[in-house]
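Human: My hope is that you can spare some time for a protein that puzzles me. I am handing you a single protein, as its sequence and its fold in token form. Could you go through the record with me and say what the backbone is doing? Take your time, and here it is.
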Amino acid sequence: MKLPARAAALRGDDYQHAIGWQWVCEALDDPDVESVSIEDREGGAFDDIVVRRRTQPNVYWQVKSSNYGDTMVTEDWLLTKKTESGSSPLQHFHDTWRTLRDAGEPLELALVANRGFDGGHPILGAARSLYDGKLRTDEIRTAGSRSNLGKARDRWTKHLEVDPDDLLAFLGDLRLLPEGNESSVDRASQAVMRNVGLRADPDAVVIGKTMVREWVKQGLGRHSRDELRRQVAEKGLLARSGTLVFAVHAIDRTPDRVQPTVELDIVDLYEGEEPFARRKLREPRDWNDRVLPLLREKVRELEAYGPRRVHATGSMRLPMLFAVGRALPDVRGWVLSWDQHGEEWVTAAPATVAPRVFSDRQLGGGADLAVAVALTSDPTVSIETWAASNGSAIGRLLVLGPDGAPSHTAVPGGDWSAGWARAARETVRQTVASSSARRVHMFVAAPAGTALMLGHYWNMMPTTVLYEYIPSENTYVETMSLA
């Protein structure tokens, strides 16, 4: 049965929008992508999908759909004009290539089709790589004029009214890509959706394609990665509804049941071949020179999505958890959550808790303040040993803990942890004010979720230096300095 013309056109639009959505997902996964546009005004005959990149060539795709399996892309189709005064598809493609090339931008053109390419044609078949869709221009160039390949080259040269070098330069920038049917494109999109922390169910794919269709209906132009992040969040496509997932792979790369929206990986910066040994960076200055800038960059990516709820995950030590919380602060409207031994701790509803001051005394003759968080254990003796052997600038030592003795059960839950962290900040703030300390040295012995929350509430403080404990040496090493 032959479909009505309008039905065929709608199927063609659906196919274009499916591939457009696939590129949206790819853009969320590829930091080199600058923007994605559909029906791009500057795309000429390759306007269906345009992907602009920062360092790699820009991508211009023309998508052709067929409803019947016996329809192919042939030389006749490429070289036939629809009207006597019009241009053939090949002429349109070449004109667009020349315009874009003359503008000086690196580019990659692709004719993308769910129909086959004529395998018996010397250029469309034998000279086309099945690996990447590129044409073997060296073979086309050296083919003899009496060979089938040489004859096809000469016909195309004559049809375009160009010299052979111009034709070969054009073909060198052109890829011929059979993409399969719409459902196969959807499956490819789903794989990328999982990888970028989006829902990957069939309804989510439909929502994504509808989003692309709306761009076309409204005549919208380029969409940056930040705009794409915001749109997928607004459409309810995040894997955790309304919540971004931020994975920080610090001492190990551990899979999570929900694919992260944004990931930070610094495992290779550490000394040590396995997670338990990773406490120091190979280059200590990388804490401030590399880790903190990378963390700020990832937070900017999170901000672009719009929602202010973030579920943090990953294998981190306490200073890194504090730094992550500090980078996503309460004062900027972030709400954080963390899985603490199977229980989700959230900063949304802190309990009314007051930290107990275990100790507040002079440790040395310096002007700085040392703060020890003593929830799971009391680090006071280790801090004293470290300070005595390092000639630190610490003067006063403030040790804060729970109501009872420090232990692994001293923190009863997430709300208590959030309340304790917020109240501890106030206690430290008052101590800073009374001592005129210009720097705080932070030593944390607490559950992971509490370290995250303490950083989250850490505001209006002097520069804070975070320390990592080295059990084998009973000492501390400096990590990050948070201004």
